[in-house]
From TrEMBL:
Gene3D superfamilies: Tetratricopeptide repeat domain. Signal peptide: none annotated. GO terms for cellular component: chloroplast. This is Tetratricopeptide repeat (TPR)-like superfamily protein. It comes from Striga hermonthica. InterPro entries: TPR-like_helical_dom_sf. SUPFAM superfamilies: TPR-like (SSF48452). Coiled coil: none annotated. It comes from the Eukaryota.
Length: 269
């Protein structure tokens, strides 16, 4: 009979001993053959299979991965779920004006689940307002690489790079994306890509839907900011905040308009 072993599992509330046998552990972890390993039906990544010429490293990866899976199974840990919870917390903190706190949560989400890295446009927005423009541009470029129809991410990448290199240089490397189904965003995209008059953008949607006027005002203000025209930027961004959609909607970008004004110390009269 296999000797029983005690495993101590700690959680936030208490530490509890779990008694298991070597055979039970073997059943959980399995007996890996060289260069192949599965655990709970999961095949390990390509990078592991490419290391077959270094068996000691492969075995180490197998053991570490197996122990991690076992620990998660015993403690009920779910990194993917925890990652999503971190994203939600980050979004809530951003809405509340805690931009630095939001970035901490977004970074934690990536640590928990690396798959989130290429989709966290919210992280890019936080980086912009923390003046970390190079990292922000990198985040938006990752997003567009995954979804080549992300109009707003393309614009935000430009905004980051305009702060780094100037408008002309940023426009030379402007991210081309597919056609946005929203008329206001198609016009905003052309404005940032080709240059033009942001007043025409606002005028074109001043009598349109509430959300269209909001987005026209928001991106007109952001365009002016990229041109270092701060008075005009303030006028349009505050208009975006005050309009019915900007003041009542739970749209993340409505919260962003308020965060923008707070970060610039613009006070509503």
């Amino acid at each position: 009979m296999a000797a029983a072993r005690n495993i101590t599992v700690a959680n936030r509330n208490q530490t509890c001993p779990i008694t298991t046998s070597s055979s039970q552990l073997s059943a959980l972890i399995g007996n890996p053959r060289p260069n192949t390993f599965q655990f709970s039906g999961t095949t390990f990544p390509r990078i592991h299979r490419r290391c077959s010429s270094i068996p000691s490293l492969s075995r180490r990866l197998i053991v570490v991965s197996a122990v991690s899976e076992l620990w998660n199974a015993l403690t009920g840990a779910d990194p993917a779920r925890e990652s999503l919870l971190s994203i939600r917390r980050g979004m809530l903190l951003f809405r509340q004006g805690d931009v630095q706190g939001s970035l901490v949560e977004f970074d934690r989400a990536i640590e928990l689940d690396q798959r989130q890295r290429a989709y966290l446009w919210q992280r890019g927005l936080s980086l912009y307002y923390l003046d970390r423009f190079e990292e922000g541009a990198e985040q938006f470029r990752l997003d567009v690489a995954q979804n080549p129809n992300d109009t707003e991410e393309s614009i935000w990448c430009f905004l980051c790079e305009a702060r780094l290199y100037g408008v002309d240089e940023a426009r030379k490397q402007f991210l081309e994306v597919g056609t946005d189904p929203r008329p206001v965003m198609r016009e905003a995209y052309r404005l940032f890509r080709d240059g033009g008059d942001p007043e025409k953008l606002v005028s074109a949607f001043s009598c349109g839907r509430q959300n269209e006027y909001f987005y026209a005002s928001l991106y007109a203000g952001l365009y002016y900011e990229s041109q270092n025209k701060h008075d005009e930027a303030k006028l349009h961004l505050m208009a975006a905040c005050k309009c019915p959609y900007g003041s009542r909607s739970d749209d993340y970008m409505a919260s962003l308009a308020k965060v923008h004004c707070d970060c610039r110390n613009w006070r509503f009269g």
